[in-house]
Fold these 3 entries.
Entry 1:
Amino acid sequence: MKLQQLKYIWEVAHHDLNVSATAQVLYTSQPGISKQIRLLEDELGVEIFARSGKHLTRVTPAGEAILQIAGEILRKVESIKQVAQEFSDESKGSLTLATTHTQARYALPDVIKRFMKHYPDVSLHMHQGTPMQISEMAASGDVDFAIATEALELFNDLIMMPCYRWNRSILVPKTHPLAQFKRPSLEQVAAYPLVTYVFGFTGRSKLDDAFKSRGLTPRVAFTAADADVIKTYVRLGVGVGIVASMAIDPEADADLVAIDASHLFAPSVTRIGFRKGTFLRGYMYDFIQEFAPHLTKKLIDEASMCASKAEISELFKAIKLPEY
């Protein structure tokens, strides 16, 4: 069994079983990959992939178990490389993030600007997606850090630490009836069609819970994952917008009226996390602390030793989170 063979089966499984596409990504030949996979299967005595002719059709049950272990081995290998690189040159490397549009567009730019000033030789890469996609990218090792608010039940394999609290604002055109109210009621808001986030994005569950607790069923006329798209449709008169307050730009959104909605909805908490067992390089600690100053190296290391989400929650119980 060779490390290269484990790399091949892992990459094939994560390229929709397309050996040709995998060969292009790995800068090798399709026949070479197919041969190595066959040699590994012959050595193990089981099929990792089911086939129809020359085409791979699915991962077998044995293959699922083998791929899980292969992923863990490859991540350990990457950790070894990270350790070596940390001792050879602590200021060079790469950092990959997975997050939502709101975090990428509004919460992270200043953080990334400061970080890149301190670490000009660290290349930074960002992926945007749904909480499900973010969780999968972090758990599979495709990214170093996941930054998310919703669907924390998806992040079982990650150490997720609280960064800050935030809430929402209502957005309407200046001529809208709600524009005259500084503290509208939930009933008043529910009287109009809503334009807000897709379920699972940017604190949407808190919004849904608030209406449900009052026995209200709002008419959601339009949803999007992008706060800027939501604002566009508010301007078109599609409905009343509900967005994260951090997504409001006083200058760019001067044509709209923003109404604080913190009296209507419970605050949400944005978290940053990484896979259990990940070796964190010095600049990775620094990035986390740049994003959330209360997350010191000592606290991050203590969180890494926690065995469950409950232990992590208890660890951060006494910490007062900043408000965004």
Note: The longest strand covers residues 158-166.
Entry 2:
Amino acid sequence: MAFIAYFLARADVLIYFSIFIALYIYWINGIKKSTAKMPPGPRPLPVIGNLNLLDLEKPHESLMQLSEKYGEIFTLHFGPQKMVILAGYKIVKEALVTQAEDFGERAITPIFKAAFKGHGIIFSNGEQWKSMRRFTLSTLRDFGMGKKSVEARIQDELMPLIESFRSHNGKPFNNHMLINSAVSNVICSIIFGKRFEYDDPTFEKLIKMLDEDAKLVGSPQALLYNYYPFIGSLLGLHKKIQQTNIELRSFISQCTTNRRLELDANDITGYIDAYILKQEQETTKAQTYFNEGNLLGSVLDLFGAGTETTSSTIRWGILLMMKYPEIQKKVQEEIKTHIKPGQLPTVEDRRKMPYTDAVIHEIQRFGNILPLNVSHSTPTDVYLRGYLIPKGTEVIPFLTSVLYDKTQWKTPYDFNPNHFLDENGKFVRPDAFMPFSVGKRACAGEALAKMELFLFFTGLLQAFTFYPPSGVSREDLSLKPGIGFTLVPTPYMTCAKPDY
């Protein structure tokens, strides 16, 4: 009943009136009983559906409990809306890979519709999505994604990050903004053709806005807005998200204007330049998707996704190294064996460092950064496991249930790098490892993120030993995530002792 308690705590007379209206409409229309056999699930209550069964601050934990009772595929009523939950590695792979076309569309929830208006890569569909994704993947490859040129960009950003850590002289500090800034600078160098200084006030503001946005869109208020847009709008949260979005778009728009004035077709410095050039090439076409809305949306997608998930994973990594110093020591021993002192790590080093590679993958699995994935939708009536999922149904390929699937991982709730090592200590990647999702909607920046995670994590562990501040034991370190769309570590302080 956490939902009801939360709702009533914030309610005023207007909201009570809105609930009455919603209840009236609900009973007038009724729940249309389909002759189609949808997946089973708990019986919904009037108006709230199954929200009484969910902890809105930690919905992934509630869904894990429900999956234990209802199995791999079940229907939940999020308020008046029906959604289908896919739980566990086998069915998520079956839906997103084997039946990729059937589950290939993106569900556009009200909070994201208000913010992105269907533009960009993540929250678009149809031919528009295909055009934007195809162009983006091609452009990212042109700028070196997965190649030596991007490796150099990451190494260039690793050096000032290490110096920033070193400036604290072993004293406790919060690494949040430094890591976010370093990771963001890599994607900024690809998008804008330049990096920013960590203390640049505009850059700091942008990073903080991205951070706040991730918290807001995963908050209980945002969920209320998605399930009851009219009632949720009374809480005003969507206005905060829209305002953040407007400010981010304003910055991107200004950058775009500047690049148009300076554009040299023979010197394309970043994604924005490439997009503008593509726009000019498309001017003679009767229909094109290369408009301003998709430019701003695509850049915002890359900027946000290229910052938040990777930086959160690295912050989880440092916290886990403090929590498990014996694992940190083994990583450092492997680094010393294969990387010469004073030499920066390279992507090639990863092949010789199976334990470090396993630790990084386990950080991703255990960190569970994107627990609910980004919702999919069925473009037509779809059959899965004998059940009919009607056209337009929101489908949640529940990533927590994959990364913590007890049929796939020996100790799913423990931090255990051995999940990625065979009996001979060689690195193995189980099929159930899918933090970037899978299928047509898998993360477009996966190759870049993998390079960043290895180079940043290895470089930091090469330069420092991380430990808790004086008076804080490893047992005191909390591994409970903060509330948000992504699961991030709760704020913590770390000490970075230089490894000379």
Note: Strands lie at 73-78, 81-87, 105-106, 376-377, 382-384, 387-389, 394-398, 464-467, 495-498.
Entry 3:
Amino acid sequence: MYKVNEIFYSLQGEGRWMGRPAVFVRMSGCNLKCPFCDTDFRGYSEMSADDILSRCLEEGGECRFIVLTGGEPSLQVDEQLISTLHQAGYYLSMETNGTHAIPEGIDWVTCSPKVDFTEGGEPVVKQVDELKLIFDGEHQISDHGIACTFRYLQPCDVGNDSRNYLILNECIKYIKAHPEWQLSVQMHKIVGIR
């Protein structure tokens, strides 16, 4: 059984797949405690792999792109769940903090290390498809030795519009000076979708 916070259908709001329709499977629980985390883990449902598949089909219809997120999905996602979803034709993307090994069979891995924001956040993954760092203008930018195809900086949403504006502008300046990075904004918050 898996502890699932929610399953919903929307558009991917961040990174390489921004704007793509996706079924989000938000796993409950995380090994880190980041100050900007926007997920409430108090409530969850215990679901089997078949239960998760049924909900993904119900929520997303013909969409065959799943984002496994959390919390930290690598704490729960396993061969059984991956196999069940792949057999139904799903492409599996995982958003991880990188502190645990990624199970075999994930099609796309986005790693967002939280080393600078919380204790115990040192990544163990060494190769991913997409590296996405939270930019707050205060911490050093580092790839933490992780090889990747795409590199994104995402301005930290601190819940204060004027501070967010300053962080965004600093992030843009940094990217212009370091063109190996690209900007990732939280499009879902801008357009008002989940």
Note: Helices lie at 49-60, 79-87, 161-177, 187-191.
